[in-house]
Amino acid sequence: MAMSLLLNHPEAMQKVKAEIDSNVGQGGLLDESDLVKLPYLRCVINETLRLYPAAPLLDPEVWEEPTKFKPERFEENLSDREGFKYIPFGMGRRTCPGAAMAIHTVSLALGSLIQCFEWEKIREEVDMSQIFVLSLSKSKPLVAVCSPR
Known about the structure:
The structure is a single chain. Strand 2 (130-132) and strand 3 (136-138) form a beta hairpin. The radius of gyration is 16 Å and the shape is globular. By secondary structure, the protein is of the alpha+beta class. It has helices spanning 2-8, 10-23, 39-51, 99-116, and strands at residues 117-121, 130-132, 136-138, 144-148. Heme binds at residue 96. Keywords: Heme, Iron, Metal-binding, Monooxygenase, Oxidoreductase.
């Protein structure tokens, strides 16, 4: 979902790419130790999890413009749990024990794909429609072209 959103929002893709280039560069691959230097990448992941959680949680009383992709909403406080607004992995005793590992894994995977490749949409807009099976999933797979940077 995150790559689909970034392809539909080229300004956010450029911002993540610039952040990776300025903090990691093209000389080596993105490493786990680099993730602390990439706050906007984390904002993109947080916003993706907010927009496409396992269960729908887009309450307009909680989020301003809830259906819009705006990673900047997480720039001030990456772990905004004020009033339990952002809880993609649950909360309290029922929180997911793999949450930190999941965030690190997604950050490394998405960051590496952005660092190593230029991405282009095949169509005007990437289809973001969803189907509900056991969780929300894209109804059509992402179709994009990548080329080495």
